[in-house]
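Hello again, I could really use a second opinion on something today. I owe you a coffee for this, so here goes:
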Amino acid sequence: MQKAALRSLLDAVSRGDIPVERALDQLRDLPFADLGFAHVDHHRSLRTGLPEVVFGLGKTTVQIAGIVREIHSKGTAALVTRVEPEKAEALVKEFPAIEHDAVARTLLLKHGEIQKRGRGVICIVSAGTSDAPVAAEAVSTARAFGNEVSELHDVGVAGLHRLLAKREQLYAAAVLIVIAGMEGALASVVGGLVDKPVIAVPTSIGYGASFGGVTALLSMLNSCASGVSVVNIDNGFGAAYCATLINQSGLSQ
């Protein structure tokens, strides 16, 4: 339940428009709903400002559908990440209104129009085309949470002029997510150009010595650009979540 919805319910009770017993019925699933295979956290948006998101990997199609249905039934958009293609196909058939981003591997079942809530723009910057799935996950997540997003792709350090040609786009952002594999140097470069927070995402892209993203992770952790923070390998969702909290800080939810 969103704060605005809860406030509206309590106002209606105080005015006498809704009986107390009816309000209790609406609140009976707080703090969570027990589906047997999952405890869906309806209280999360009240605590953190953002609703629960479904991590699809490892869950069955039936489990994902049950959780999505429960979240959506309470007036909240349902976002699912890391959805395998065959599961996504089945879920699209079950929920015709659901939006599937095959590159991002996400599903989004909206509940009305998504309200824009960010203070500024989240700029998502990726080094190479091979980083596209992680970048797309970050884009999908940031937009699902009500942020305005700009994108800047294939601007890695192997051709630094590509990035510098778009520096006004970097300067205009309130927070930046920088995604890179190989040696992960792009995060430090961007961090040295802007006066805004940079969230770095190492990806598992690279040859053998990249160690599945560990090289980029360590490079980003050792960045000499002071404004760079780092999330886990391939974690576009986590970066977008953190960027959302920064972009929406100080706003009423």
Summary: The radius of gyration is 20 Å.
